[in-house]
Amino acid sequence: MAYWRWLIIDEISMVNARLLAQAEARLRAVIPSANAWKTAVGGEARPFAGLNVIFTGDFHQLPPPEGGYIADVPARFKSHEPGSKVPDVLMNYGRELFWSGPVQGVVELTERERCKDEWWNEVVDELRRGQLSEVNWRYLHGLPVENCKLSAAERASRQRVITGPDDERLQMDRFKHAVAIVSNNDARYQINKDRARWYSQTACTPLRWAAAIDKASTPALQVDACDKESKIRWLQDHDRDTGDLCGMLPLALGMRVALTDHLDRSPDKLLLRGRAGYIHSWVWEENDRLPQVVYVKFENSGHWSLSGIDEPGVYPIYPVKRQWHLDAKRKQKLLKVTRTQLPLTPAYAMTAHASQGKTLRAVLLDLNVDKRVDGTFGTVAASRVRHREDVLILRPFPRWLFSRGEAEGPTLLLQTLRGEEVDWKNYRDARFPSAACEKCKQVRCFDAFDHKQWENIRANRAGICMQCIHGDDGPAKRKISGNRAKIFCAECHAHKIEDAFPRALLTLDAGQKRCLSCAQQVRALTCAACSSTKPVEKFQATMVTMPAESIMCQHCQAEARDLPRQSRERWFTCFACNITYAGRPYQDEKAWGKNQRARRCANCVSRSSRQEDEHTCRNAKCKRKWQEHQPKGSKRQRYCPECRRK
Ligand SMILES: Nc1ncnc2c1ncn2[C@@H]1O[C@H](COP(=O)(O)OP(=O)(O)OP(=O)(O)O)[C@@H](O)[C@H]1O
């Protein structure tokens, strides 16, 4: 390692930020300081100890399942508050290697070599951008497309979603052994077992099950979860949780299997994890749980052959021992189990993560995935083949799953690596609107205000941050779980999140909406009651956040309040904020005449009028509201103090 000069890391999108940080630190620790390239002119160690590192990959492909995505925007670009806490230091360090300088330069490959099918490449591109078009979605499903001028043959070739289990294309040779690409390991494990059974039936060859032998360590034996039923359950868990060894491994002669571990790294054989082959033969006594050895003939194996085995490309696979933990999610893992099993799995299904980087002869896709699955699943799974004819989609899928837009992190990272200027202030304003707290006067991000206070700010009124309300003991931030879709501001031409807009201005048509910071810059307003344009000082602060037809100057407000109730056709006083506006309330005609609570302005319409620590009595005859602080964890009182006494 002391003489290494180059390090090449492929599929960088799947390397997690924490692992990259650990690798970088390790290199600096092990490479001797005597190496001239390790230290810079100033004497400090260079990143990666001065090695030349080449990263290859595409950040618009799948992110790592855990450990932090390198292409996620680092915390320092998101926060308005200098010195705010970084959630995971190691993860942040790994990200910064890419975002702040050590990675210099980027080379972009723009030509597609794997697939020359123009239409399929167009579909893959749309999936990559998270903008699958309606037309292509309809073609994939074989649905009619308006004004389609394609030939019947072309349209048929574009229908990749199968019509059902009887679809003739499933009987084609290439799809009989084709691998199914799925989104998670549970689905992969189940499909592998089902298709192994199906293979043994269609090939008329007996299916045998190799059952893993699990030996629990003493600490594991002492916990309750180590009884007989649990051991049977372990055999059903998928192999990623159990040391990459299957619990029940179906085996049949001629069945397609893949390695779950690196077996032989010699350059002629390269029997690495994921390498597929067919079961050639085995040595397996009738009553044994496991075979003594399974011989696998590997695909594209060249001409090597082992001594004692005549047929080229055949390799003996023996059972191996691997350790796994019952408490794998804990930091200090204690409950160790040792499993003995063959390092093989049926090669009929793989996760999209495992497929990334591979070129496959034919694939079966399941695109009807959970909405939490990363949007890039589609592009990774669909781009493994050379022609559209090599893909079949197993069931219909909704278009919205792949039309949720592309992740912003990879695009911004690419801009940064290209050396382009990124407007970080604009980025922060669009995603993390901020405001000054009325009490401490510090500019805080919107999640530092509770919902009620932020609603005040959205209506251009004063708001107090959570820290000033609760002190150091209370929560400093609230959890934001709203819609993160961006809305276009007609004034500053930026796409911003909903929280950056006054609630009232969101009722306007698209193209007329104005964000809060643009609304605050308005210097003159026109009163809808007297039609005169006056400086903004002549209006209440909240008027800048209202649509033109609701704006009323202070003079007209005072006049309106002196008028009799009957004249309220042209103005109203909001029940929640007690401000008089021109026009009619946001509520529908029927409600506003009868129910004064419904008489709310567009800023207050969906805001709860519930006070902090306010409760409504459960007693149907009482329904009284009372205020009482009920700490978390204590028994919740559902009846008011008076009903409790009764
Ligand atoms: N210069 C080339 N000439 C001909 N074919 C090529 C060339 N480069 C790549 N290919 C073909 O494209 C296939 C995919 O290439 P490669 O694995 O390098 O792509 P990739 O960019 O890593 O894709 P991904 O990251 O999506 O897996 C190769 O298996 C090869 O068949």
UniProtKB/TrEMBL annotation:
Q: Which domain of life is it from?
A: Eukaryota
Q: What Pfam families does the annotation carry?
A: PIF1
**Name assigned to this protein:** ATP-dependent DNA helicase
Sequence ranges assigned to domain DNA helicase Pif1-like DEAD-box helicase in this UniProt record: 6-64
Keywords, sorted A to Z: ATP-binding, DNA damage, DNA recombination, DNA repair, Helicase, Hydrolase, Nucleotide-binding
Q: What GO molecular functions are on record for this protein?
A: helicase activity
- List the coiled-coil residues: none
Reaction(s) catalyzed by this protein? ATP + H2O = ADP + phosphate + H(+)
Instruction: List its EC numbers.
Output: 5.6.2.3
Instruction: Provide the cofactor list for this protein.
Output: Mg(2+)
Q: Does the keyword Nucleotide-binding apply?
A: yes
Which protein family is it in? Belongs to the helicase family.
Against PANTHER family, the record matches this protein to: ATP-DEPENDENT DNA HELICASE
Region Disordered, as annotated, extends over 625-646
Report whether DNA repair shows up as a keyword of the record: yes
> What organism does the UniProt record list as the source?
Durusdinium trenchii
